């Protein structure tokens, strides 16, 4: 059992890091082990490391949403992950924003991050482009295996491999939509004389835009 003094030091450190009471509560809910950790030896060095490249606003979001970072080894996990992301082109504000939007990346293995980074290139995204990084974030969130399954599901609906790649490049968020909702959306599009023709689908810009618009309209709340 932790002493009251130790818990007070831990909570005070989080307050000093800018977290509100609600954010501290969320952090503890997300990682109950947090209350067992040492503020000086565990939390403080990791917060100091994050502060070297993360904006204060983003720091609060990261700690609150993914307090499991304090269960990780600073040198073997967190620093390795950050170094890898820098190798992939994330620096400065881009790195800070990425981690604020995907804080789980700090607790994800380097292997999974590497796999997620390779997939956009295989789908034809231009490396380093805005759409490439958007696809990378979606894949990291969903997981590579789940993403591959979703792409196979699209092919199962009648789209060719190239057509699926085209859809992903134009609408990366499609990789984050559940198979059930994709099917439901296809049913929606196919109803009321809005049939989608599969042959030559990727070549028809107007037809593709109709599909993208329908997906966005139907699934906006889920993918945003």
UniProtKB/TrEMBL annotation:
One of its GO terms (biological process) is DNA-templated transcription termination. InterPro entries: MTERF, MTERF_sf. It holds the Pfam family mTERF. Keywords: Transcription, Transcription regulation, Transcription termination, Transit peptide. GO terms for molecular function: nucleic acid binding. It comes from the Eukaryota. The keyword Glycoprotein does not apply. The keyword Transcription applies. Belongs to the mTERF family. PANTHER family: CGI-12 PROTEIN-RELATED, EMB|CAB62602.1. This is Uncharacterized protein. The lineage of its organism: Eukaryota, Viridiplantae, Streptophyta, Embryophyta, Tracheophyta.
